């Protein structure tokens, strides 16, 4: 009722003395402030667009150019090469400017043209430089071509990410190129050689030949190239739409992923304080994003990456639909939604024209923790709607949440900057009991099926003992974006000793003004609605009970030892995974997925590296045979590592296999063309799905002086019914974290057993050197 009262700006009464108006001054003041804030944001947006459009120039440089041109002309030096005299009659005729002012106007117009031409030329040159990727294949001590040397000099002179805004290079980034169909088919067939029998391989080659010879490939490729000329990225919109938004399966476990705390440090045990400090840091990061003050990520501080995915990091929600979900993104929000003990609250972080301080947020969160009121009927399990079947959730949202209190409260969650879950349970890491870390991760991946709002971009989870983590929805962006947020706000801010907390564990500072009370959200959930919630909770419970999740903290060695072997750390780990799977599966290889980014291109997301290769299989067989010499094994492992690195670079530079095949398949469906080759190629199971979690993206993480500051990374649910999902983070010189998931219901897999095989394989690889 407090919100309803504040919404009444004025009232009037009709009396015998006329109409009397009564204004609520506080309400009018809030309306005025909201309007001013909205216009400030619009002005900031216009200023950022202008800055990005003319980057690297500044508005002042235009005035300087005009002034130089005018002064030079006044002193008899015509820098325009005679164009001022040619332009003067035009200025006099059409602008009505009389001499001698016509000369000044002509100089200003010509200066403006020169200035704009210089900016456009710069952007074209930068685009050409960023489209060159030969440097990736010539790094790490190999002979450097003259092209790459020239490119390196020009990039260092012309590209500076240090003073650029977040989107300064967006317009200059190249479009993702459409690979040649023959090259993609050839790469695909080579990748399947170690996995198919001779007869299966012959059938696959025949299907590929028919796909090319009958003109199907040429026709589909034509439409794909047409799209690539028109759209910023020929893959990303279809990838988001068909892989994520059209999926009707539950997104909990199947799509969402999680991130975990820096487990070796503990800045505070006070739950409300940790929640407040991390929330405040995240909101300040959002503020920087909105102002485009965050520098674009770059490779070697030189080559910028696409920043498109940051736009929907906050105030974004996946909305369920009958056939297809949609993503709702807002440009602004003033509150976060908080879940605790089965109840939902609305907590303002922007109030009375200012951003609240961490200590003021702590005060609000503590009042929620102190509130012992019971949840309303059905409220405690409400989030199970977001965990279950998407069609059922879409119908329930339409039937039960389209009006009244339910609509208002649902809006408060969906329009929040993010969701905060204040858990009643604790979570921790104990080197003597690794099952605690497994439970920690499982709580973040799925919780109890109804204590995470799985539709939100991310739910920040704060446990009763101050440990934290997050659960993230996947459709809007990829994990590195959340990883950067985590690094910016937690790893390099929240856990730094003496920065955010007093000695007693509470947030530093004192309230600077009136702190609003949390608003308890009200629900009117009918018996029919509660039945739907219960059915969705059963679906979620069955799904989460089938997850076998195990975390491995490998501290025997890390990146440092891998580098002494003169191998890429990622290639080292991927070969260890191939060896571990071969041993775990009783001598079999499987189709292996490793995620690689394509953010060197505009609106790039991911590409697949097919890590199971002829070279890796040859090495694994030789390793297991026991007959190969150490020299031979080293030769084979280096050949396999080189092949993996080449494939990784191919994927990053737009020469991957899977996204091209995927988009060809989408075009075939639009054209109603049946392609046996595409059908077969795209319906193979990834029994080993892997991903490396990046760290050190911000350049602020100092692991030499603070080795315990590294996050334990994050993970995801099993992709295949009889396979493994493996996420890993090579955390500094001496530690690797592995997050291994599989199905409890599958007799062939066991996450703990596979973790042991990974550790054994890593040690065997190290022993070779």
Describe the structure.
With about 775 residues, this protein is α+β, with helices and mostly antiparallel strands. The protein is about 45% helix and about 15% strand. It has an eight-stranded mixed beta sheet with strand order 15-9-8-12-13-14-3-20, with helices on both faces. The chain has a six-stranded mixed beta sheet with strand order 16-22-21-19-17-18, sandwiched between helices. Helix 8 runs antiparallel to helix 9 (about 200-215), helix 10 (about 215-230) crosses helix 24 and helix 22 (about 615-625) packs antiparallel against helix 23 (about 630-650). Mean pLDDT is about 90; it is low at about 1-10. It catalyses: (R)-carnitine + hexadecanoyl-CoA = O-hexadecanoyl-(R)-carnitine + CoA.
What's a concise summary of this model?
With 769 residues, this protein is of the alpha+beta class. Helix content is 47%, strand content 14%. It folds into four domains: 1-54; 59-137 and 144-159, no CATH class; 188-242 and 549-768, Chloramphenicol Acetyltransferase; 265-539, Choline/Carnitine o-acyltransferase, domain 2 (Chloramphenicol Acetyltransferase, 2-Layer Sandwich).
